[in-house]
Design a protein that fits this description.
There is one protein chain. It is built from seven helices and five strands. It is α+β, with helices and mostly antiparallel strands. The protein has a single domain, classed as DD-peptidase/beta-lactamase superfamily (Beta-lactamase, 3-Layer(aba) Sandwich), CATH 3.40.710. A three-stranded antiparallel sheet has the order 3-4-5, sandwiched between helices. A two-stranded antiparallel ribbon has the order 1-2. The longest helix is centred in the C-terminal third of the chain and has 25 residues.
């Protein structure tokens, strides 16, 4: 289970996700659990990755708002939500995420002492060349003891993944810059 979860969190692997939904906990159970953590209006999980892959229209039935994703990530890093050992494993594994380093993490990678834990999500490109989703949510710790959560979601984008990543990275850079300016003035 740990290996599947690690692979899902660090590689954003849909196959591992499908295995866990099939053999461990179903979509409805997962949806119900998350509803205990963030507002119901901010998300819905209705289908597995396998089901959405077979019918891309189902992808729009699974959603999370940027606020909902940020709330969940923030709670994971600031509150005790589950067993300490399991929660520590998830938090540490998110720090090892290999996908989307060109998104929120991109402008922070060369900053000394910055620790980034994040999770990406990507959608398909439809027949009109529209990218359904290109997302990232992160919990970021700065060396000056400031921590913050940032979620940037690009939806129905008429461009490629690289361009979408540039927008996400730009927003991340602006937020970081503003937080650093604010902390210097304090």
């Amino acid at each position: 289970v740990r290996d599947l979860l690690r692979y899902t969190l660090t590689q954003s692997d849909n196959n591992a996700s499908n295995l866990m939904f099939k053999d461990m906990v179903n979509v409805a159970q997962t949806d119900s659990f998350i509803a205990t953590l963030i507002p119901r209006s901010s998300f819905q999980i209705a289908y597995t990755e396998e089901e959405m892959s077979a019918d891309h229209n189902k992808a729009y039935s699974n959603y999370t708002s940027p606020l909902g994703a940020a709330m969940l990530m923030n709670r994971l890093f600031t509150e005790g939500l589950i067993d300490d050992e399991k929660q520590s494993f998830i938090k540490n594994t998110l720090k090892e995420c290999k996908t989307g380093v060109d998104r929120i993490a991109a402008p922070l990678l060369d900053k000394e002492g910055v620790v980034i834990a994040h999770k990406t999500g990507s959608g398909y490109v439809n027949e009109n060349g529209v990218l359904a989703a290109h997302n990232d949510v992160a919990y970021i710790c700065l060396p000056n003891n400031i921590s913050y959560t940032l979620a940037v979601f690009v939806k129905d984008f008429k461009g490629n993944e690289s361009q979408a990543s540039q927008y996400v990275a730009h927003i991340s850079a602006v937020v970081y810059s503003l937080l650093m300016q604010t902390s210097v003035k304090s």
